[in-house]
Fold this protein.
Amino acid sequence: MAATRRLEPWAHGAAQPGNGAAQPGHGGAQPGYGDPDTPVPVLVTRAVRLIGAFWGSATHGTGLTPAGLGVMRLLAATDGMKPSEVAAEGLWAPGTITSVVDTLVRDGLVERRRDDGDRRVVRLHLTDPGRRKATEVLLQVGPKWQEAFGYLDPADEPAVRRFLEQTIARFTAAVQDERGK
């Protein structure tokens, strides 16, 4: 039964044991925290949400949204990407990229340029102020990000890396299947 529960996060309801409610030996800890019966999908969902919340907090006050910084980070690594490439690489919807890039363009951090070889294609480029801003914010946020993951035991890193790489590959395929690609 426990194996089934691990695959069925919806079965992890309030009336079931292992839901993180105060139980002997749990000390009323966060729901699912340290509970060996918490399904892996529930743990992953919580981790993803908390990582996203942390990233949002880390970027707060920098003048950039998490998505804006993500776009600028991608362009800092590969300037001249098409919006569709940025969307695919960052796993954003095309409409999200349009909105984020509109703001970055308005703020003078990114510019849209027509491709020299095909004038129908638009490419995104960091401006000089955009490159300086991306560097400034990454220097501010980067250490927080590194510190947040500082708990990872180097001996555990290969297993964590393997899990994440397999998860990324599996869900990339699942998303493509869902979208009919």
Notes: The radius of gyration is 21 Å. The helical segments are 2-7, 40-59, 66-77, 83-90, 94-106, 128-148, 157-178. The chain has a mean pLDDT of 83.
